[in-house]
Design a protein that fits this description.
about 375 residues, 13 helices
Length: about 375
């Protein structure tokens, strides 16, 4: 009887999620490519870079070649790299004939109380923020992002036409290796379930989120919240920034992109594992109670279906088998739009229970690392 109740409960959760949880599964929140503006505001891109020699040429080329009709400049902050990030950046701009559009700053040593990326961004902003030069918008982007030719135009058009102070895109992550196909689309799926984009984009909802690889923010909104210094210690800086802007009464937007992509590769399980474990426990506010609830929730939502199907098959309990089969099919159906976005075989959607199990283990490992003083390790730095 217990297994029947649990199976019905799992099915009920999926029905609730699909019907009432902000249409998180749709994966269709894309920017309009047809609109344009008569007058384009000034924009400055700030790119924090630490040991990005492998990708900085492609990333900068995509930025410097933007078809943006307004005034646009790029500030790259070399965050104490140990490679040739700066040299390649300068060479790239020179080869494109756009050295006048790029400024490269040698980052100062990390100051206590700041996270590395945010400290680099702060220095980039400060280098530009004098009354005569301060742009109307800032584009915060990572050094491993390759922007579509029209990306900046679309971001600014979205902001200007819909009175938005922050417009962010979750770029298309690399999805080529086995582990990328198994785990990367699921990362996007889980993120959308955690922060339904329709609710993030709804001014009447308090939910806020952003994707740090591509964030356009108005200078007015950034100044009003106290600048990057107001979130200087945030490990999940993108969502913290979005929350600060929305809490101040400003409108924000978070969407997906099919054409602006991440160049960062995740060729093996360890790389993806470490990336997820870096902030998973932070998402739970370092709460053991929330961790326990998350683990139990993941088991009920994702694992009961395959377990129940196996149990029903072995014991010939066709009611349990049927309920769990329907639950698994709903799970697959919900995941398919994200699978389609990443242009991989629909067969991967059937593996969502196994994928969720791995993500649960990553979350537990994130908590263990936190209590061992290893939480938030990134780019050679550890934040506790």
């Amino acid at each position: 009887m217990t297994i029947i109740i649990v199976a019905i409960f799992s099915l009920s959760i999926w029905l609730f999620l699909l019907l009432f949880w902000g249409n998180f599964w749709r994966a269709d929140c894309l920017l309009d490519k047809s609109q344009g503006l008569n007058d384009y505001p000034t924009v400055c891109a700030v790119v924090p870079a630490r040991n990005e020699a492998e990708v900085i040429a492609a990333s900068l080329t995509s930025l410097l070649n933007q078809d943006y009709a307004g005034q646009f400049s790029v500030v790259l902050v070399d965050d104490n790299s140990g490679d040739y990030t700066t040299e390649i950046a300068l060479q790239t701009a020179a080869q494109l004939g756009k050295s006048d559009r790029l400024t490269v700053i040698a980052g100062k040593p990390l100051v206590t109380g700041w996270k590395g990326k945010l400290w680099a961004m702060h220095q980039g902003i400060e280098s530009v923020s004098i009354p005569a030069n301060t742009p109307d918008y800032w584009l915060f982007t990572d050094a491993d992002i390759q922007h579509d030719l029209h990306n900046l135009t679309q971001l600014v058009t979205k902001a200007e036409t819909e009175d938005l102070d922050l417009v962010s895109l979750m770029v298309l992550l690399r999805c080529q290796s086995f582990w990328e196909k198994l785990l990367i689309p699921a990362f996007v799926f889980f993120f959308q379930k955690l922060y339904p984009f329709a609710w993030v984009n709804n001014p009447a909802k308090s939910m806020a989120a952003a994707a740090g690889g591509c964030v356009l923010i108005s200078n007015e909104a950034l100044t009003k919240i106290g600048g990057i210094a107001s979130i200087k210690n945030a490990l999940i800086d993108d969502c913290t920034l979005a929350q600060a802007v929305k809490s101040d009464g400003k409108n924000i937007y978070l969407g997906l992109s099919e054409t602006t992509i991440s160049l960062r590769g995740y060729d093996n399980l360890k790389v993806i594992w470490d990336t997820i474990a870096r902030t998973a426990y932070t998402q739970l506010n370092y709460s053991p109670l929330l961790l326990a609830g998350t683990v139990i929730g993941m088991v009920i939502i994702y694992l009961i279906a395959p377990i129940g199907m196996a149990w029903g098959l072995v014991t010939s309990n066709w009611l349990v088998f049927g309920i769990c089969t329907v639950t698994w099919l709903l799970m697959i159906w919900a995941y398919l739009p994200t699978i389609k976005l990443y242009k991989i075989s629909p067969a991967w959607a059937g593996l969502l229970p196994a994928i969720a199990f791995l993500y649960t283990l990553m979350t537990i490992d994130s908590a263990l690392k936190y209590y061992q003083g290893q939480g938030g390790a990134w780019k050679g730095r550890t934040y506790n």
